[in-house]
Amino acid sequence: MAQSAATEPLRDAPSSTGTVHSSQPEQSYGGFTRFELELEFVQALANPYYLNHLASQKLLQDPAFIAYLKYLRYFQQPEYTKYLFYPGPTLNALELLQQERFRQEILSPEIVAQLAEQTLLSSVKAR
Q1: Can you say how many angstroms the Cα of residue 85 is from the centroid of all Cα atoms in its chain?
Q2: CA 11 to CA 77: how far, in whole Å?
Q3: For the packed helices 109-126 and 48-56, what is the interaxial angle rounded to 10 degrees?
Q4: Where are the alpha helices (DSSP H) in the chain?
Q5: pLDDT digits (tens, 9 = 90+) for 8-56
Q6: Taking the model in full, what pTM does it have?
Q7: For the chain, how big is the Rg over CA atoms in Å?
Q8: What DSSP state is assigned to residue 29?
Q9: Per-residue pLDDT tens over the stretch 53-81
């Protein structure tokens, strides 16, 4: 069974079994590597308003998208976390998105506002 580009293990990223894939040639997507695109996307997850948008588009109900979010958990490993500008809020959002209840609740403006406030406070404390 062939894997889609979205769930195919990233070059030099660990697979679900913990092995590292480095034999694949580096591909370019519009001039960017897959890692650069995934890094940009995973950092956008720290924005609660973006999470609300994803939920409103029903992406957070799509099993393929949920699998992609699970795959992105490789950013929790120190060798990838070091590339995140705001690792705390980014990794927190990525972990929350693993929970079905959160994926439903992020549609609530109150939850979005609460998460935005928490994110802001954590970024202020980090400085």
Answers
A1: 13
A2: 15
A3: 150
A4: 34-44, 48-56, 63-71, 78-81, 87-96, 100-105, 109-126
A5: 445 455 443 343 445 566 788 889 999 999 999 999 999 999 999 999 9
A6: 0.76
A7: 15
A8: E
A9: 999 999 999 999 999 999 999 999 999 99
